[in-house]
Structure formats: C-alpha cells, structure tokens
Design goal:
The complex is a heterodimer of chains A (538) and B (560).
Chain A: E1 4-10, H1 14-25, E2 30-33, E3 45-49, E4 52-55, H2 66-71, E5 81-83, E6 87-90, E7 96-99, H3 103-113, H4 115-139, H5 151-166, H6 169-180, H7 183-188, H8 194-202, H9 217-229, E8 237-239, H10 244-257, E9 260-262, E10 267-273, E11 276-282, E12 287-295, H11 299-305, H12 314-322, E13 329-336, E14 355-358, H13 362-373, E15 382-386, E16 401-408, H14 419-435, H15 441-444, E17 445-451, H16 453-460, E18 496-498, H17 512-526, H18 529-537
Parallel strand pairs in A: 1-2, 1-12, 2-9, 6-14, 12-18
Antiparallel strand pairs in A: 3-4, 5-8, 6-7, 10-11, 11-12, 13-16, 13-17, 14-15, 15-16
Chain B: E1 6-10, H1 14-25, E2 29-33, E3 45-49, E4 52-55, H2 66-72, E5 81-82, E6 88-91, E7 97-100, H3 104-112, H4 116-140, H5 152-166, H6 169-179, H7 184-191, H8 195-206, H9 218-226, E8 238-239, H10 243-257, E9 260-262, E10 267-273, E11 276-282, E12 287-289, E13 293-295, H11 299-306, H12 314-322, E14 329-336, H13 348-354, E15 358-361, H14 365-376, E16 385-389, E17 404-411, H15 424-427, H16 453-469, H17 475-478, E18 479-485, H18 487-492, E19 530-532, H19 546-559
Parallel strand pairs in B: 1-2, 1-13, 2-9, 6-15, 13-19
Antiparallel strand pairs in B: 3-4, 5-8, 6-7, 10-11, 11-12, 14-17, 14-18, 15-16, 16-17
Helix pairs in contact in B: 1-10, 1-19, 3-4, 7-8, 8-9
The chains are: A alpha/beta (538), B alpha/beta (560).
C-alpha cells in the first residue's frame, strides 16, 4: 500500500480539479488522478496537428460559476476569457441572420427578417432574465429529497415552492413553459422568423437525444441561455490558449492549495471494505489508500467498472443501468490555411469571429434529428462552428486558423456499420454541409480531427459519447440526477462521492458539481458517522 | 344568485350533458343548446351509408369515470356497455400477433409466446399502472388548486394528493417523477423487450396527440389515460348501438334531473358586457338573456368565435391563443359486405371473438415514430398508426345482415396538410369501390373554410385501406362505402378548433393547473358568468366525463 490521503479524486476533468481544489483549500490532503497524459478531461487543448492547438471537445465557455472563478482566484492562475461576439447563421437562399452582442444592431438585423420579431426579441430578453435569475440559485444548491419528511428537505422544498409563488403570474407562466415545452413550440409563441427560431432552439438540443420539437428542450435552451444574459463579460467566450487553459488554471489553483496531481494514472478499482471505501487501485497495480474517494467520472464507470456489483444495492444498480447517456453529437476540428468564405456574406468580416451556426430552418433541424432516431448520423447535420484563432492567434501558426465544429446528430448506436468505418464518411458529411454555405472550405482544410461518439467514449471516458455525462432530459435532472434517491453526491458506499457532470446541475464547463460535492464531503467529514450512514440508508 | 336560476350550456357533447345533469341536481335550470339535430358532439352514432351505422368519431368509451357513472345511473336509461375480451388484438405483418385479455395471467401467457422475459414482467407492469392509476384518478377528479390563494378545499385536496403520493412509497414517488416527463418509448422498454408489446403500450401515450413515442412527456399522457382504465392495453368498451347511445343516455339522465335540451339550436354568439355574460344569441337571431353560460366548446372557439375577443384581457387572450390544439387524428369508417380475414388468424370462428375488441395496427415503436414524422412536415403518414374496431361483431344491428362496419382512428394526419399529392407509395393501387369517399355524408359545417384536405381526403382513405390490406388482404374487395373524416372536417363539422379531439394538446404544459391556461384552470373564466366544461379543461383525458363533473361542482359553488 502506497501513501495515504484524506481524499482521492478520480478524474482530472474540470469538475474533478475544482472538487480537489476546494477540498485542499479546506486543509485536506488530496490526490487527483487522471488517466490521460493531459489534464482537463473534455475541457482540454491539444496540439493534434503541429502548430494547431485544438480545443478538442468543449470549445466555448459561459456557465463557469462566478463564485468558483472568484474563490479559486482563477484569473491569477492564468484564466482569461475572450468574448465570442454573436452568432452568424448562413442561409442557402443567399440571406443570413447575424445576431451580435450589440443589442441594437441585432434588432436592426432581425428587423430585416421581421419587424414583429425585432420587437418580440426585446420582450423575449426581458422575459428570460427573471427566468435565469430563478434557476441560477438552483445551480448551486443540493437537490432536496422530495420523498422524505426530513425537516431539512422539507425546508428546501418549501423554499422552492415559495420562490415559485413569489413569481408574478407572467413569470410562472413562462417558467412552467420552459420546464415542460419543446424549444420550437416555446419560440413559436414569440417569433415568426424560421431561421431565428431554428438557431435559437439549437441550444435546446445540445447534448440530448431530442429534437427541437421534443418537450423538455426548452429547459436546455434556458440552461444555455443563462450564460448569455449576465452582461457581455460573461456571455459565451473562448479561453485564451483554448479550453484546456481553463482546466490548467484550475489545476494550478489546486496545486497551489496543495493538491497532488498525477497524470497517466488510470484507476482500475475503487477499493471497498464492508460497505466503506478505503482507496483506489491503479491499473499499474499500485494501491492508494484514502478516507474518501470522490469520483468525477460518470456513474457507468464508477459503479459498473470500478466497483464490484456485489457491493451495491440492486435498486441503486438498476438506477445506474437505467441512466441514459445516448451520445448524440460529434466534433470535427479543422486546421485551415485560410478563412472560410460564405456565399451569403463573402469576406473575412466580423461575422467569422462569433459562432457560426448551420441551422437554416426548423425543419432542417428536425430532419437532422429524424436521421439520428433511426441510427444514422444526420445527412445534413446541425453544426456550431467557431474560429478561435481569429480572437486568439496563439492557437494557430501565423495566417493560419483552427475551426472547431460541434456536430449534431451523431448517434452512438449506429443502425449499420461501426463508427470506426463510418468516421471518415461522417467527416466528409460535415465538410460537405459546410461547403454548401462556404464552398472554399474543401480547398483550405489542411488537416482534420474527427471525434465520433465512440471516440469521445474511448479517448475521454464519456460513456456512449455523451458530452454531459448523461442526457439533460427532465427525468434526469435535479433530484433525479443521476439516480433517484442518490442525487446528493453521496453513494451507497460510505465515503464514496460523485462530483462530475452526471450530478446536479449537470454538464457544461460549470464546475458547480465539483464545488457542491466538496461541500457535501466536508460536511460529512465534520458530521458524525451517524449522519453519513443515515444518508446512505436512504 | 337564486337557486332555480337558468344556466345556458353551449354544445351537447358528453361533458356538457354531464354538467347539465349535475347543475339540475344542484337545483339550477340548465338549458343545453346543441347545434345539431342530435346531441353527442364527438360521441355520436350516425348512419354513414344506407343501413350502416357507426360511432362516426369516438368509437370506444373512455371509460366513463366510475363516480360519474354511479351518479347518473345510466343503466336506468337502457344503456348497455359491451366489454369484449380480448380487448386488443395486435397483429404483425409477418403473421405474428399478440392478444390482450382482461385477465393479466392469460395475457401474460400470450406474451410468453413472444418473450418469456416480458411475460414475467407483464404482471408487475399491470400492477404499477394500477397503483399509479389510483393516484391519478384522485388527481383527475379534483379542481386544480389556486396557486396564490388556495382555498381550504384546495389544501385538503393537496393533502389527500400528498398522502396518495406518499402511499406510493419512496420508489413509487421517484418512478412517478421519472416517468411523467419521459418518452413513452423509454417507458415501455424499461419493462419490455418485445417490439410489438412496446408499441401497443406506447400507442396509448401518443393517441390523439402531436407526440411520437420518442417525444418526451408522452408517458404523462399514458398515465393520465390510465387513470380511468389501468389495463396496460387500454379500454375496449362499446355502448350497444354505438357511442350515440351513451350520449343519448346522458341526455335522458340530464332531462330526468330537470335539464332542458334543445337541438338544432346553434349558439352563434355569447353576449358579454363590462366583463359579464348577458346572454346568448342563436343562429336565426333568437336571443336568450341569461347571466350564466357554460361552454362545452373548446377554449379557442369559446373565446375567439363565440365571444367578442375585445372583452378579454390581452394577457389571457394571448395565453388562449398559445393553447396548442393542432389535431393529428383522422377517422375512416368503412361499410363492408363481409368480415375481413386477418392473415394472422387461422380459424374463422376463433377470429370472430379475437376481432371483437380493438385492433392495434402499429407493430413497432419505430413504425409509430415514422408515422409521426410525416405529420411534422405537413404530410399524413403513408403507413399510419390505426386504432380499429369492428363494432358489428358484438352489435350486429349496426349493419345489414352479414355485413360489417369497420371504424379506424388514423394517426398521424396533420390539421395543416400540404397541397402536394401523397408520395407514390401512398397514392398507388387504388382499392376497389372506395370511390365514394367524397360524398361522405358529413353534417352541415359550422363554417366554410378552405383546406388542402378536400383534395387529399381520398388519398388518406386509400392509405388506410392499403395499410389494413397488409393484414387483411380481402379488405379492399369488401368495401361498399368509405367515409373519411379529416382533421379539417373535425373543425368545420364537429367544431373542434384545429381538429383536436381533446380540444387541445395533452402536453405537460397544458395539463392540470395549466389547462387550458395558467390562473384559469378552475372552470371559471375572466368573464363573469362564463364557465368552461369541455375537454379543454382539467383533466381532459377523453370520454371520462370528469371535466364536466368537475366543472359542475365549481359552477354550483360559484353561482350559489
């Protein structure tokens, strides 16, 4: 048996590192273990093609909790967020929609498409702001258990009920709609411009296996909208040096707080003795003893791979098996030796500096989903592209560029063939789809990295390639995430905790799960064993 | 307001008649005003071809909520319900099939032929549906609470509901929370592996809605429907003489209680002044001054057609406008000169019994989902999901001797259909003697309105016949007459705005305290003296009568 630690954190993704940092700041002796040679998990920057730095998976940031930035003093550790200005949606008819952070200009732009919508757009922002205000505190709270009559839980449920009742009738109406409707239906009530609705509703499907017309997507829309509202400085942005720089800043803060971080240290087993964890065993055979193990990897890996099923209650295991991943997206990273030239708006204008969204119409988005439902990647996928090298030249050689393309839908389970033999075809589909809008793309691509859901699973340990460690569908949120009855970061194994995106409030570079989990761990640490076992008996 | 006061009830559908009954019992003088010469709304029996009578729209009972049935004592009005066993026959094109009997064990035995594993799970599934249905029945028969100022009764109801929830136990509560927003396809596969079985279960979650089995929230619809009948395959109950005899019996019960029912009396306008009802105007100009009006019509028709919208507060008007009510259902009634022979059934005499319930056409989840896909792009399914009945097997007098009536719900058929003819696959091979579709005898339209459906009507009929022919090859040769009721007909002839048979989408955001709209889910409306009692109000789950019963309770309290 090697060294002994207070806490071993499994996984060096942003949540794992946040969790480790907070625990170390509280004086615990913490070791963080990362399987790969680089830190960051899905928030990572790598030089896949010489001279080109790819934010391989996650590519933009907005939801990173301000309290974490503040408490871990991330700017001092090198975090720098550069604004991502606007969203540009090319259309095949030669027209386009270009929304910018500058509200007035956006309104003028929308007026080109519809006067009514231009006015509705104002109202819409006004209406969404209180919604975000309502949900934000939920992102930092431990979900209550709706099935017990424990005062603490009842108090929280009461708190939620009171918050809801404190809303105006108008706000309630909208909130209920956001929690239950489909993004398309919700936006239909506001706007008439197809391309506007399509582009806005796109953020409602990210990381889910749902179409923009599926109920529940309005919530995901809100989930992504929240970043946008808090003034320009925390609208969607890049991190200088790629998304990996965020992870590195957190890692830096963690190390400073005393966390020991080991890369290329893949975990093989979580050691359990009589219902209590006592450390981990690495694939190398090395065993590391610890009082507490905090796992930032998803429930499938934690409970079905690292732990012997005999250690777990059957109903919990059933819940873990039932938890839905269903990766639905892929990623194509391109090295370019020039900028893409869009037919509908030629030239290297500012429209290339923001997000470029291939989402020309509601039906286009819905048909993309239809393909996936029957086990094929979309013949015409929704693509969200950014060219970080325009804002942050450090990520590409002079005059050259990197373009990051998030692609949906790409179902993990294919009806025919395997992703290994479909990978190139998938990449071609993406290039061809872009080429319909920017024909020069084929000439300027000098290298490409294609990440299918299968690659996300193999390379980054995201089960079934789900970028959020599990679908953000209503039945897997809040006190149901990841397993009903176990949404409190604790597990049936004493001293084993979850701190990844599979726990409330879920995915995106938020850090909230890691932070809340650290609070739970520290609380239990102080609290008597009794309180711990009471919880784990739930 | 004095007891004995007259209350006008707009429309003679089943909910309206039930409201009339309770109002009369409560000492009021309800006056039901029905546009047509017969009452019943969507639950009627009509002769759609000489000698052939069918439940032209609704063809099975919801069933009626037990409480309502008890109060109205329909058996006193020579009303008989035929309860076929097996309830549902689900064939597959390859000749395989599945029978759902009333008895769980026997059904499990049938399932065992396809999957031992599923057979084992079936009892457990039936049990959890039954358990939940108790809670939902309770939920369906209460008035949605007022959020800001809950009345003592609200609190009592919430307490009872809360107790109902807690009685489900920790696991039950979490299942409830999980299942509600879930896609019914996921729900079904949580229990079963057999596609056919999954499809029959899932169908109940999408029936009458604009949801596919993969749409989140479709499980809530299933649970809502299971509230009144928790059999996994759903109800199969036909009134003798068709659905018309149900509403006829309801009308008799209401009359006996003291209600007045006027047919051929179309309410054209609900008069309101300074936010209060002053009377109703009938087509033909007759005016009835009255201070209480209950509308059995759907919310959109009530507030935008019958009422002068300028009477409404803009916020409320906007919410009603946003109430989603785009229909997806069409109905095809066939007059047959013989019994269709299903290739999945060998013996003729055996098949007679087998076909006496509902026949489910929709062998796979993906089949249902593809059927739904078409409707998203303004097309009707070329391989639709069909809910079929042959009422004449148990109720021979509905057709001439030896002849039969086949009645099929068709999904998905979008209210707004594209003008383009259906793809060749659908239009081709025109079945024999089905040309009579155009002169399908629908009653006088409420209003003229243009729709591509007039041009697509026959395509739809042909698609249905073609689909059925894959299971019963001799069907096309049996057809004497085909009546096609398109979603557009449902609006113009039946008065369902948007052609939605439930008066509005059964979606999470349009249920309970949100049905029809938030703040106005308690059967009252912003117009003093105007009430709603139709399916557009809670619970709105089909032919259960609960909307009508709940409404009556609130109206009586409010008028007294």
């Amino acid at each position: 048996m090697g060294q002994h630690y207070d806490v071993v954190v499994i996984g060096g993704g942003h949540n794992g590192l946040v969790n480790a940092a907070y625990l170390a700041k509280a004086g615990k002796k913490v070791l963080a273990l990362e399987r790969r040679h680089v830190l960051g998990g899905a928030a990572v920057t790598e030089e896949i093609i010489p001279g080109f730095l790819f934010s391989e998976c996650s590519y933009v940031v907005s939801l990173l909790r301000p309290e974490i930035i503040r408490e871990l003093d991330l700017p001092r550790h090198g975090l720098e967020i550069l604004p991502l200005d606007g969203t540009f949606t090319p259309m095949l008819g030669g027209n386009h929609l270009w929304r910018m952070n500058d509200h007035a200009r956006t309104q003028r732009e929308i007026r080109r498409h519809s006067r009514v919508d231009a006015e509705a757009y104002d109202e819409f922002s006004k209406t969404m702001t209180p919604m975000c205000r309502f949900v934000k505190p939920l992102l930092s709270m431990i979900p209550p258990d709706p099935t017990t009559l424990k005062p603490a839980d009842l108090k929280q449920l009461h708190f939620l009920m009171q918050r809801f009742r404190s809303l105006s009738s108008e706000e309630r109406y909208t909130l209920v709609q956001l929690m239950t409707m489909s993004a398309a239906d919700f936006l239909d009530q506001w706007f008439e411009t197809d391309v506007l609705k399509a582009t806005m509703s796109a953020s409602g499907i990210i990381g889910t296996f749902l179409g923009i017309r599926s109920p529940g997507t309005a919530y995901v829309l809100l989930h992504h909208y929240m970043g946008e509202i808090d003034g320009a400085f925390r609208s969607w942005g890049f991190s200088r040096g790629g998304t990996g720089a965020i992870s590195n800043a957190i890692a830096d803060a963690a190390r400073e707080a005393g966390v020991e971080i080991r890369t290329q240290a893949p975990v093989a087993k979580i050691l359990v003795k009589s219902g209590r964890t006592c450390g981990v065993a690495l694939q190398s055979g090395e065993e590391i003893s610890a009082n507490v193990v905090s796992s930032s990897v998803d429930p499938h890996l934690t409970f079905e791979k690292f732990i012997d099923s005999s250690e777990l209650p059957s109903d919990f295991l059933e819940g873990v098996r039932r938890y839905k991943y269903r990766g639905s997206s892929g990623k194509v990273n391109l090295a370019l030796d020039a900028l893409p030239d869009f037919k509908c708006l030629p030239g290297a204008g500012a429209h290339l500096r923001g997000a470029i969204s291939i989402s020309p119409s509601i039906d286009y988005m819905e048909r993309a989903y239809d393909d996936a439902k029957y086990g094929n990647f979309s013949r015409r996928p929704y693509i969200d592209m950014v060219i970080p090298s325009l804002t942050d030249p450090s990520v590409a050689p002079p005059g050259k560029h990197v373009m990051s393309c998030f692609v949906q839908y790409a179902p993990y389970k294919l009806a025919t063939g395997t992703w290994d033999d479909q990978r190139e075809a998938f990449g071609d589909t993406v290039i061809n789809t872009i080429a319909e809008h920017a024909p020069n793309i084929k000439k300027i691509v000098t290298g490409r990295q294609i990440l299918t859901p299968l690659d996300l699973e193999r390379e980054f340990g995201l089960t079934q390639g789900n970028i959020f460690q599990g679908e953000l569908s209503l039945e897997q949120l809040f006190f149901l995430r990841p397993v009903p009855g176990w949404a409190y970061y604790r597990t049936p194994i004493d001293n084993l905790y979850m701190c990844g995106s599979a726990t409330h409030p879920g995915g995106g570079i938020m850090g909230a799960p890691g932070r809340i989990a650290s609070q739970v761990i520290l609380k239990d640490w102080k609290g008597s064993k009794a309180s711990r076992s009471r919880r784990s008996k739930n | 307001m004095p007891i004995g006061q007259r209350v006008a009830i707009v429309g003679g559908g089943h909910n309206a008649l039930i409201t009339a009954f309770y109002l009369a019992k409560g000492g009021f003088k309800p006056l039901v005003l029905e546009r047509r010469e017969i009452v019943g709304g969507g639950a009627i029996t009509e002769e759609f071809h000489p000698g052939f009578r069918a439940s032209t729209l609704a063809h099975t009972v919801g069933p009626l909520s037990a409480a309502v049935a008890r109060d109205l004592q329909l058996e006193k009005f020579d009303f008989e319900i035929l309860r076929p066993d097996p309830r549902v026959f689900a064939p597959r094109p390859d000749g395989q099939s599945l029978l759902f009997q009333n008895d769980t064990a026997r059904t499990a035995a049938n399932i065992a032929r396809l999957s031992e594993k599923d057979a084992a799970k079936y009892a457990q599934f039936a049990a959890s549906l039954e358990e939940l249905s108790g809670f939902f029945t309770q939920l369906c028969s209460i008035t949605p609470p007022a959020i800001d100022t809950p009345t003592p009764e609200d609190l009592w109801n919430l307490f009872k509901t809360g107790r109902g929830v807690r009685s489900l136990g920790k696991r039950g509560i979490f299942d409830l929370l999980r299942w509600g927003p879930m896609a019914v396809a996921d729900f079904a596969s949580e229990f079963f592996e057999t596609e056919l079985l999954r499809a029959v279960i899932a169908a109940r979650g999408i029936f009458g809605t604009a949801l596919g089995p993969w749409s989140a929230g479709s499980t809530a619809v299933l649970l809502l429907r299971a509230a009144v009948d928790h059999h996994p395959a759903g109800p199969a109950a036909f009134p003798r003489g068709g659905l018309g005899s149900l509403t006829r019996a309801l009308a008799d019960a209401a009359k006996q209680a003291g209600a007045e029912i006027r047919t051929n009396a179309e309410v054209q306008h609900i008069r309101a002044k300074n936010g209060a009802v002053t009377g109703v105007v009938l087509t033909g100009g007759e005016e009835i001054a009255i201070e209480a009006v209950v509308s059995g019509a759907d919310p959109k028709r009530t507030f935008f057609k019958l009422l002068d919208p300028t009477q409404l507060d803009p916020t409320f008007a906007l919410r009603v406008r946003n109430f989603r009510a785009a229909g997806t259902v069409a109905k095809v009634n066939l007059a047959l000169n013989g019994l269709p022979v299903f290739s999945a059934l060998d013996s003729a005499e055996g098949s007679l019994n087998t076909l006496s319930g509902r026949i489910h056409i929709g062998p796979e989840i993906d089949y249902l989902e593809r059927a739904f896909d078409a409707s998203k792009y303004g097309e009707f399914s070329t391989a639709p999901y069909l809910d079929v009945t042959i009422p004449t097997i148990l109720d021979a007098p509905m057709a001439p001797d030896g002849k039969h009536v086949l009645s099929a719900y068709v999904q998905f058929a979008p209210f707004k259909v594209a003008a383009a003819p259906a793809p060749p696959a659908a239009a081709s091979e025109k079945p024999a003697r089905s040309g009579a579709a155009e002169k399908s005898n629908l009653h006088a339209p409420i209003e003229k309105s243009e729709s591509n459906w007039s041009a697509r009507r026959k395509d739809l009929g042909d698609v249905v016949v073609k689909t059925l022919a894959a299971y019963a090859p001799n069907l096309p040769d049996l057809i004497e007459h085909m009546q096609v009721i398109t979603p557009h007909d449902l609006e113009t002839s039946y008065g369902f705005t948007g052609g939605h048979i439930f008066h509005g989408e059964l979606a999470l955001d349009q249920l309970f305290t949100m049905r029809p709209v938030l703040d106005w889910a308690r059967y009252k409306t912003p117009i003093r003296g105007l009430y709603l009692c139709g399916s557009g109000t809670h619970p709105g789950n089909g032919l259960t009568g609960l909307s009508g019963a709940n409404a009556a309770r609130e109206i009586i309290r409010d008028l007294r």
